[in-house]
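Pasting as-is:
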Amino acid sequence: MPLNFTPRAAARARQLMQGEGNLALKLRLFITGGGCAGFEYGFTFDEWLAEDDTAIEVEGATLLVDATSLPYLVGSQVDYEDGLQGSRFVVKNPRATVTCGCGSSFSLDLD
């Protein structure tokens, strides 16, 4: 698999889907330009699976990644943390060369 979607992250995604009353929702991870380090991770819920999406299912929850974002995320782990900085989905990207303090902004050495 190109990404590791942890059971803890899958469990939290399922809880949020149940809270919305819509078990057809899928957790979407995407990359956008910006942030203090160049790129930012984003999460949203989506009902639709695009033709070029990569879908990873773990324990009844599905993580979606679009084809444009996937190359930046290969080898990453998507987890869920509940700590001092709050509760959030986090990406642990071994390819990130620079990250910011908030953990949602990063840059890559694409050479």
